[in-house]
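> forwarded from #structure-qc
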């Protein structure tokens, strides 16, 4: 990772996340309402002490803005391509569980999204050594993704919401709205009442 990437990452995270939050405020008020406040510096330091290593600056920036979401059990919180942003305590608990469960769980991997934010089963992690992302699951071995970092992933969310374009949008996956919530579904198999894709 270059010095430029280290400098630019948190700013790109901030700009993308601010765009997403404002979009939710205007278009998906139930999802916007699921956002928790940002974590204080003292809470972030406590998290790092519990982990035993520093959080990557990108992840630190994100959690300082919004430290996870609440779960209303109606999909509203899972607005990040079907996953929700984990609260700090849940992320740390999940990290400890996965570190015990998987012998190849690397030092520095911190889960930050999950399919269920109160009872996580699968999601994404940030490698706090490099800033790169990976995927994890309770029943599948964790796997690093090819070169994608947190800022880049959030920018793909923005691209999908703004332009209906990019790798997160395809025949089997699209962002849409239902009951004031942003919900990602397969348009060919809609199982949420009232759901419609953002772009036709």
């Amino acid at each position: 990772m270059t010095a430029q990437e280290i400098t630019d990452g948190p700013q790109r995270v901030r700009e993308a996340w601010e765009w997403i939050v404002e979009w939710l405020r205007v278009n998906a008020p139930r999802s916007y309402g699921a956002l928790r406040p940002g974590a204080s510096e003292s809470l972030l330091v406590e998290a790092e002490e519990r982990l035993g290593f520093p959080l990557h600056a990108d992840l630190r920036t994100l959690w300082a803005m919004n430290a996870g979401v609440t779960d209303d059990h109606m999909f509203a919180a899972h607005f990040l391509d079907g996953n929700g942003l984990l609260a700090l305590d849940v992320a740390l608990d999940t990290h400890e569980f996965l570190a015990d469960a998987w012998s190849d769980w690397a030092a520095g991997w911190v889960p930050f999204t999950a399919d269920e934010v109160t009872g996580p089963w699968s999601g994404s992690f940030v490698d706090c050594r490099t800033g790169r992302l990976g995927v994890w699951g309770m029943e599948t071995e964790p796997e690093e993704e090819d070169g994608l970092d947190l800022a880049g992933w959030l920018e793909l969310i923005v691209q999908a919401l703004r332009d209906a374009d990019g790798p997160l949008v395809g025949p089997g996956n699209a962002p849409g709205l239902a009951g004031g919530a942003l919900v990602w579904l397969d348009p060919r198999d809609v199982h949420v009442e009232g759901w419609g894709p953002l772009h036709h």
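QC bot note: The mean pLDDT is 92. The first strand starts at residue 84 and ends at 85.
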